[in-house]
Specification:
With 257 residues, the protein is mainly beta. 9% of the residues lie in helices and 35% in strands. The protein has one domain: Ribonuclease Z/Hydroxyacylglutathione hydrolase-like (Metallo-beta-lactamase, Chain A, 4-Layer Sandwich), CATH 3.60.15.10.
C-alpha cells in the first residue's frame, strides 16, 4: 500500500510564479508485532480480538476461541510482518471461520497445522467442499444461515467478491457471490462484523444488529470496500466503536467509524 504526499514550493522569477512540485512515496508498514501465547486462549470474563496479520483474527469470547481467516505460515508472497504466534503454539480452537478461498484468507498450510486442535471449520458451501477434501471437520452454510459456537452466534453475511470472473483464465470454474461470505459474530459482550473481502453493498449499511467492531481486510481495489467504502461505513451508527483496517502484505491502520 503506497501513500503519496505532494509538497508544493512557490518561487518568484521575472514576475512569474513558478510552482515546483515534488512527490514522495512511502511504503505503509504495520507497527511492531505484539506476540502472544497460550494465555490468549484461556478462560476470560470478556471478549478480546487479536490481529493475526493479513486478514486473520483471533477472538476469545469468555473462553470460546475462534480464528477468522488465519494465515500464519506458507504464503506465496513476501509479507512485511512477523506473525504473532506459530501454528504449533496454538493450544485449542473451538472453530475456524473462512470467508473465501483466496489463499490469503484460506491458507491450506496453516489450516492443516491447526486441524488437530480445531473442533470445527465453517465457511460457504464451496469452501466447505475444499475443506472436506482436506479432511477438515467442516460445515458449509448459505447466505443468511446462522450457527452457534456457544456462547457465540454467527450469521453468514452476503458479499460481492467473485472477482475471478472478470479475468479469463484466472480460474477453472465460474464463481458465484455465495462462494464468499462475511460473518456477523454476536458475543455476550458485543457484535463483530468480519466482512472478509467484498465490495460495499447497500445492505451492508443496514446490517443488524449494528456491529460494535468491524474487521476489514482493507484494500482500495474495486473488489474491496475501498477508502470511500470505509467512509460510508460511518453511516452504520455513531455507536460503532472502531474498525481494524488492514492491507495486503501486512500493512495496517485504524479506521474509526
Amino acid at each position: 500500500m503506497i501513500f503519496s504526499f505532494t509538497n508544493s514550493v512557490n518561487a518568484q522569477h521575472d514576475n512569474d510564479t513558478i510552482k515546483a512540485t515534488t512527490e514522495k512515496k512511502y511504503q505503509a508498514k504495520a507497527p511492531p508485532t505484539q506476540p502472544f501465547g497460550q494465555e490468549a486462549f484461556g478462560k476470560s470474563n470478556e471478549t478480546t480480538i487479536r490481529w493475526l496479520g493479513m486478514g486473520g483474527f483471533l477472538i476469545n469470547s469468555r473462553g470460546t476461541t475462534l480464528m477468522v481467516d488465519p494465515l500464519l505460515k506458507g504464503f506465496d508472497m513476501p509479507v512485511m510482518i512477523d506473525f504473532p504466534i506459530k501454528t504449533e503454539d496454538v493450544p485449542k480452537l473451538d472453530a475456524i471461520l473462512i470467508t473465501h478461498s483466496d489463499n490469503d484468507h484460506y491458507s491450506i498450510p496453516t489450516n492443516r497445522d491447526l486441524k488437530a486442535v480445531t473442533k470445527s471449520y465453517h465457511s460457504t458451501i464451496y469452501v466447505d467442499s475444499l475443506m472436506k477434501a482436506e479432511g477438515f471437520p467442516s460445515f458449509g452454510h448459505n447466505p443468511g444461515d446462522k450457527f452457534n459456537v456457544d456462547p457465540v452466534s454467527v450469521e453468514m453475511v452476503a458479499v460481492d467478491h467473485a472477482w475471478q470472473n472478470a479475468y479469463p483464465g484466472t480460474a477453472t470454474r465460474i464463481f458465484k457471490d455465495e462462494d464468499s461470505t462475511g460473518f456477523l459474530i454476536e458475543t455476550p459482550d458485543g457484535t463483530i462484523w468480519a466482512q472478509g473481502d467484498s465490495r460495499l453493498m447497500p445492505e451492508h449499511l443496514t446490517i443488524s444488529p449494528v456491529p460494535d467492531a468491524i474487521l476489514f481486510d482493507f484494500s482500495d481495489s474495486e473488489w474491496h470496500f475501498t477508502f470511500e467504502g470505509c467512509e460510508n461505513c460511518k453511516r452504520l451508527s455513531q455507536y460503532t466503536t472502531f474498525a481494524l483496517s488492514l492491507g495486503i502484505g501486512g500493512c495496517t491502520g485504524l479506521c474509526p467509524v
